[in-house]
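Work Package 3 (structural annotation) set out to generate three-dimensional models for the target panel prioritized at the project kickoff. During this period the team completed the workflow that converts sequence records into discrete structure tokens, so that structures can be stored uniformly alongside our sequence database. As a representative example, we reproduce one entry of 152 residues exactly as it appears in the project archive.
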Amino acid sequence: MVISSEDNVQERLKELTGGRGPDACIDAVGMEAHGSAYDVIKQKARLETDRPYVLRQAMRACRKGGTLSIPGVYAGFVDKIPFGAAFAKGLTLKMGQTNVQTYLQPLLERIQKGDIDPSFIITHKFDLDEAPDAYELFAEKKDGCIKVVLKP
């Protein structure tokens, strides 16, 4: 399923699911989400620490009785969360940092066997001594940067 950045996400998901909404939604972005001027203004005024734009979308999109997983990192205060909508839908919320140690070995084995190829996400490669420049590129989302690999 492909959803363009120009699509209305809520409408497109309803269309793709026969009006129900997805059974499960994932907010894997957390406090670094983009898309809401409201959150940027609240952050600049120091009234909010995170940008819960994706969290709001996921709560609204998920079907009644659905599951919302939140591995995206949130560090503090968020505002305007449609908690009533999540409550009325009876959503199951699962959140917290991913237990990397649990999943690391099985995922590495699948990569080594060729079952998974994560290389498509790598947009930039740098030598280790270029790490400060690479971090700036990544942090500022310049040059289409999504994932950087540092070579020792």
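The chain has two domains: 9-95, 101-151.
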